[in-house]
Amino acid sequence: MLLEIFNFLHFLGLAFGLGGATIAAIISRKAEKDAEIGKAFMKIIPSVSKLIWLGLILLIISGIGITLLIQWPINRQILLVKHILVFWIVFFGVVIGVKMRKMQTLSPVNSKGKISMGFLRTRKQIKVFSIINLILWYLVTLLSAFV
Ligand code: HEM
Q1: 114 lies in which domain range?
Q2: Sequence-ordered list of residues with C-beta below 8 angstroms from that of 63, at least 6 positions apart, any chain
């Protein structure tokens, strides 16, 4: 019964995390092309970001639960590779969070409409790290099919 609950939570975490990361990527692409969406994006992204973190926490807790309770053999090597990739998702997630906060303070809204070099650089970095993280999310999901 407990294993089934962890399994369910693993899928729920997957839906929140992978879904959230994909939605964030789609809206951020639209935000680049449209300033109005850009403003709306800055308002909605904290909620999407929380959804992704909730997904990750659910995945990690349930993942540990599954590993402890599982009755059938699993591929420990693939699981180890998966753990390494999950570590990088968390790492880049923290970096993106810090840069997001920095971008907000550098935002043209807070600096009399002027777009600074720092703002553009930070925005570019967030974009690169977000793409890396999105790829990592899909890689971990793909890899999990072989555990
Ligand atoms: C981004 C993080 C993660 C994603 C996207 C992810 C995704 C998945 C998916 C799609 C499956 C296959 C479905 C299933 O059998 O339930 C799976 C299985 C599994 N995951 Fe994860 N997972 C993540 C993190 C973790 C972590 C951190 C652990 C361990 C600490 C873990 C342990 C496992 C195990 C042991 C299985 C095998 C279950 C089985 O063979 O029935 N996962 N994961």
Answers
A1: 2-144
A2: 10, 86
> Judging by beta carbons within 10 Å of its beta carbon (0-12, 13-18, 19+), is residue 61 exposed, middle or buried?
middle
Question: What's the pLDDT tens digit per position in 32-90?
Answer: 899 899 889 889 999 999 999 999 999 999 999 999 999 999 999 999 999 999 999 99
Which of 2-6, 55-59, 113-117 is predicted least confidently? 113-117
Work out which ligand 1 atom sits closest to the CA atom of 67.
Answer: 35
Number of separate domains in the chain:
1
Single pTM value for the model: 0.91
Residue nearest atom 9 of ligand 1, based on CA coordinates: 144
Residue nearest to atom 37 of ligand 1 (CA): 147
| Cα(84) to centroid(ligand 1), Å | 13
Give nearest CA residue, ligand 1 atom 16: 7
